[in-house]
Prior knowledge:
mainly alpha
Amino acid sequence: MNPLGGLLDLVSPVIPGRDGTVRPTAEEVDGYFPADSMVRRLHRERIVAISGVRALLMQALDPLAVVGFDRHSVLFEDPEARLVSTDRMMSRIYFGTRETALATGRAIEGMHDRVNGMVEEDYGPIPAGTPYSAGDPELMLWTLATLADSAMLYASRFISPLSDEEREAYWSDYRQVGQLLGMPDDSMPPTEPELREYLDGRLRDGSLYISDEVRERAVAIIFDPPFSGWTRLALTPLTEAVKLSSVGLLPPEARQLYGFGWDPIRQAALDSLLLQVRLASPTWPSWFRLHDAARAPAGTTFQGRVSIESTDGPGAP
């Protein structure tokens, strides 16, 4: 990484232009989503980005999706790359211009077209020979729902509670994300309460499953962070917070499938973490509190080109 480039990226949103004016940031200018949209209000907060770990843990409980993960995704081999890739592409949709968001949606749909096949061996309730496709709206819905649910949960617990109206507005925005990725309108719950009903139903209907092998690999995502040496030591407070929140904010049914223990002591530690962040975050400087994509100069493409060469993506199984 070029240290100078990183520094320029950090301060570029407030560098005056040649005419002496300050360039507006992406979050201040309407793009695919309006500047005051709920999806931008939530995802501009950097703390919401770590909700992606919880979302990935929930996604790994869909047995048919796991087959796709294993064959077409870097999730288990390089979970950091999966998280970064998802964050980058979704940020282009949240904060990009209409053209950038549409191009990103087309790129993801193109990836979905290449991700399909048949289950080769029985996996829990999924028998060998079952076809799968990343473009299957039913399979995409679990991915979309876990991303949206995790973002709302982290925003409401780490920042401030969301009202029913705010939750409805956010899900309405997120349905537009689903449509941009190729999901038919009628494949998604029309309201936020129905989204919760869908999630509760999946958690209780016996359709979720995880094998011992996949459980170990998925757990490694949060308990074996991809750092070493001084970096690992320096990031210990962050990684410990990610571990605690990722497990503590999982639905009880998901924790049980993973075999995660939970008790009043852990709950008290989580409550303390949530309170500390909620009280401290309003005092954090914007370069620390706000996502890079929100602070980037308006009209620029977040983190490079829109074209995506990887076979991985947020909607892939």
